[in-house]
Each structure stands twice: as structure tokens, then as C-alpha cells.
Amino acid sequence: MLELLFLLLPVAVLYGWFIGRRESGRRSGFFHLRHRCEYAAGVNYLLNDEADKAVDILTRVLPLERDTFDLQISLGVLFRRKGEIDKAVRIHQNLLSLENLSQQQRDEADFALAMDYLSLRVYDRSIPVLQRLLKSPERKKEAAETLIRISEQLREWDRAIMYSEKFRDLLSSPERVKALANYHCELADASAEAGSYETAVEHYRRALEIDPKCFRAIFSEAKLYLAEQDYTAARQTIDLAPEAQPDCVMFCVPVLAACFHKPESSPEYVRILMRWFAVSFSAAVASELVRCLMSRGNEGGARKLAIGYLRENPNVLMLSRFLELVGKSEADPEVMDTMNYLVSIIEARFDVKDKYCCRSCGYVSKYLFWRCPKCGRWSTVRPDDRFVSG
Ligand SMILES: [Zn+2]
């Protein structure tokens, strides 16, 4: 239905134009009988909900001239959205062949044509047009945004950074800051993969300068130090993450644990976890603290912490840890088996560790994407509260 409405909008505009043209045509003799017949057929198609045929016929009747510029542009966009991109290209190219267009109209037709080529993924045609439009006062912003989008599609991160830096003031938004930090993270990941450790660290640091809350930069840099067995640097780096992004602290716990030889018996490890817990009230951190207490033989403390947390924040992760705790401290093998069975059911049912959700569009995934595959926004996919802390 929405699609039909969309189709009808330009046709309605055309209808208005024809009414005006018919009136002036009557006076000037312009509106020929043949045009009138075709126009009547077009309206007839329109009334019978056959918008495609209506648009086709009205396109034929519509003369190519400066006065019909806006209508031609609308028709071209309509064809592009319908997937008939060859027709859109033809309309926009024809418009550009008109000699008496204003510069503003020429830029608009150029932009429409660049978008047609982009729909066809013919980047070598759309990019030069968009680069030219960077000088157009009216089209500069859209051209810069589109060039950045193309750079993202082509994974040309250096180019995406160049355009983002150059047009930083024009495109200023929190979303753009996140995107720019992620471009540096992309370059850092590629450098790390190629073994260029120092370049990777430089890019992660630059990402953090741009966006001090960039969890990806902190997390990835810490993991890089871990891979290099620099445990002190890994611990110091990952310790920055919970304050930057408290809802992602669940990913930091295993990284922190890997920095210690025997984490559960390290007072420093528990001290850091306690600090993270105060910042995030995270089920993952509470669950790890319960595990530390259990491994130290402090089952009473572990049970108290688990029950206290569950009362405050009923949560499947902590429930599963609590049942595990009850099962382990139970002498009766049947009760122990039952508890273990319940833990396996809960973990299978809720898939506790693998639920992520985009905060922007609601896309749910089993994987943590740095960029949402559905809406294309950066740093919006996070652990799903319903499973992790709700
Ligand atoms: Zn999304």
C-alpha cells in the first residue's frame, strides 16, 4: 500500500501539472488532441490502480523542457526506486542535455544521475560526478555523505577517513564521530592482521581520540596486547572499557581473566571486578565474582552474592550460575543432576552468551557486529538486555 502511495505521488504532481498545462494549452493551442487522449488514458490507468502504465504514458506526453524539470526529476527517481534504472538514467541524461538549465538544476540532475549509477554499482561513473558536486553549495553535503557511503561499501577506509575529516564541520553528528572512529579500527584490524603491530596501535589510539567511548578500539587494542603476551598493557587497556561502555563489560571479563595466571585467586583481579561491578551492575561480572568466591571455598559468600543479585535483577545468566552453585554444594547426586539439567535447559533456551541487538533498528543477531548489517550504523549492536542484564 505504501509503495502504491509512493507511486501515486509523482503522478498526482503530474496531474496538477497537466491541469495547469491544459488550461494554458487551451488558450495557446498547445494541448493537442493526441496529448489529451494519452493524458486521459494515463488518468484512466491511474484510477484503475495501474500506476506503472500511467507513469509510462504520462512520461511520453511530458515534454522535455526547463519548465518540466522538477517533474522529470521526480519521474526519474520513481523509475530508479522501481528498479527501472535504465529509464531513470535516460531521463536524467536527457535533462542534462537541455541548454538553458540553471546551475542549481544542472547540479540536481547530476546528483540524480550519480544516484542512478550508484544503484547500478557503477562507481567509476558516480564518483567523478559526486566529486564535482562537492563544489556545489546545495549538493555538497549529500555528495560528501554519498562518497563516504561508497568508500564504506568498497572498504576504502583511508578514503572514508579523508572525506570525513575534510567535511567534519558540514557532516558533524555523533553518528559520524562513531563511524570515523570505526574506520580507524578497520585500518587497525587490517594492520594487526598483517603483523604491523605499531600501526595497529596508532589507529586504535586515534579512534579513541576521536571517540573516547569507542569500545571496539579499547577491546581490540587489549586483545592485541594479549596476543603479544603483554599482559600488563592488556590489563591497563581493558580496564578503560567498562567506564566507556558499561553495557559491554561482559566481553571484558574473559580478556581481564586472561591477563592473570590464576585469576580467581588474584586479589588484583577481584578488586578490578568489584570496581567494574560498581560501574555496570553487570550480570557477567557478578557471575564471575560468584565463581571466584566458589573457587576460594567461600560458598556462603557466593550464594549470598548470587541471591542478592537475583533479587535486585532477575537474570538468566545469574540464575544459571546460581543453580550451578546449588548443584555443586548439594550432596544428593539426584539434586545435583537436576540442577545441572536445569542449567543446560536455561542456557540452551536463552542462548545466554549469543544474543545481540541493534539499539538503532532492533536487528537481533547471534554475533557482535561493529556495524549493523541491517541499518548500516556503527557501534549500535550491543548485548541484548533481555538476556544479559534484564
Ligand atoms: Zn541496526
Overview in brief:
With 390 residues, the protein is mainly alpha-helical.
Structure write-up:
Strands 2-1-3 form a 3-stranded antiparallel β-sheet. The protein is 71% helix and 2% strand. The longest helix has 27 residues, at 2-28. The chain has 21 helices and 3 strands. α4 (69-82) runs antiparallel to α5 and α7 packs antiparallel against α8 (140-153). The chain has 390 residues and is mainly alpha-helical. β1 (356-358) and β2 form a beta hairpin. Zinc ion is lined by residues 358, 360-361, 363, 372, 374-375, 377, 380. Zinc ion binds at residues 358, 360-361, 363, 372, 374-375, 377, 380.
Q: Tags for this entry?
A:
390 residues; 71% helix; three-stranded antiparallel β-sheet; mainly alpha
Write the SSE topology.
Layout: H1 2-28, H2 33-47, H3 51-61, H4 69-82, H5 85-96, H6 103-119, H7 123-133, H8 140-153, H9 157-166, H10 174-193, H11 197-210, H12 215-227, H13 231-238, H14 241-244, H15 249-258, H16 267-280, H17 283-295, H18 299-312, H19 316-328, H20 333-350, E1 356-358, E2 364-365, E3 381-383, H21 385-388
Antiparallel strand pairs: 1-2, 1-3
Helix pairs in contact: 1-2, 1-3, 1-4, 2-3, 4-5, 4-6, 5-6, 6-7, 7-8, 8-9, 9-10, 10-11, 10-12, 11-12, 12-13, 12-15, 13-15, 15-16, 16-17, 17-18, 17-19, 18-19, 19-20
The structure holds zinc ion.
